[in-house]
């Protein structure tokens, strides 16, 4: 009699290998997330050595946040994100297009890739301390400008809302444009070279190739970049926190939503902190859904146009 061969159940081993991840996620992420949402419906804070609550108060924490300066801090966060993201995506797209274009014959591409990515490896706290030292009233930047005769008195870069926000935006740009450039380069390199050759034979110039071929083809990566940037912008904390010593100076014009959340955590107001966390989650989900739908609809429209052209041909 033939012996029956044992059948290996690879699916079972797959579940076993991913089990540690789900256990870690459940213990360290899911349970704290549920607790955060639960505490958002409770009055739970400390007053001195006395602990108040937890007492169920429904949506009162959410209503109190809307009456506070939360919307002002949301505006600050959006402004700081825009100042850093707009030049970031523009410069990254330009550099990615240049490095990938074989006709330019740029030498030392690997060296340039390493150089533009290096700022991403520096800790945000170290970057903020560096800029704080460089642009302080008695810092090197003021000394250089004074010695050149361009200014008579030191400039208080961090004494104005424009100066502080500009420094935060520049730091975010320098830290992340290299990472964005590498991702966009990978996306452009994934496009079939035959498409560019056909476009060149048909007489397309560089601008037409970029707007009608490159941009539509890398739209999914652009959507990913925008979504991750939005999430990172809403979580902006370390750079403005260190640069302004946690004060959001001047006049709280650089205070972000996470800095506002951190103030509630420091004052042990867990109910308000939980409600603000839920607000951040909802805003992030809505913005990401909007970006996804917008890019997904464009991709579908492009495919439909391609099918119509194929039928006509």
Briefly, what is this?
With 313 residues, this protein is mainly alpha-helical.
Would you kindly provide a written description of the structure presented here, covering whatever features stand out?
- Residues 74-291 form the ABC transmembrane type-1 domain.
- Its main location: membrane.
- The chain crosses the membrane at residues 12-34, 78-99, 111-135, 167-189, 210-231, 270-292.
- This protein is mainly alpha-helical and 313 residues long.
- It contains 13 helices and 2 strands.
- The chain has helices at residues 10-39, 60-67, 70-100, 109-117, 124-134, 140-147, 161-189, 193-201, 206-217, 219-234, 238-243, 257-266, 270-312, and strands spanning 42-47, 50-56.
- A two-stranded antiparallel ribbon has the order 1-2.
- The longest helix has 43 residues, at 270-312.
- It is globular and about 75 Å long.
Order of helices and strands: HEEHHHHHHHHHHHH
The total of beta strands comes to 2
Instruction: Tell me the distance between the termini.
Output: 63 Å
Per the CATH scheme, the topology name of the domain at 82-261 is MetI-like fold
The average pLDDT score comes to 86
Q: Name the quaternary structure.
A: single chain
The poorly predicted ranges are none
Structural class: mainly alpha
The spatial strand order of the largest sheet comes to: 1-2
The CATH architecture of the domain at 82-261 can be given as Orthogonal Bundle
DSSP helix fraction: over 70%
Radius of gyration from CA coordinates: 26 Å
Biggest beta-sheet profile: 2 strands, antiparallel
Can you tell me the CATH superfamily of the domain at 82-261? MetI-like
Percent of residues in β-strands: under 5%
Which class of the domain at 82-261 in CATH terms?
Answer: Mainly Alpha
Globular, elongated, flat, extended or rod-shaped: what is the shape?
globular
What's the total helix number?
13
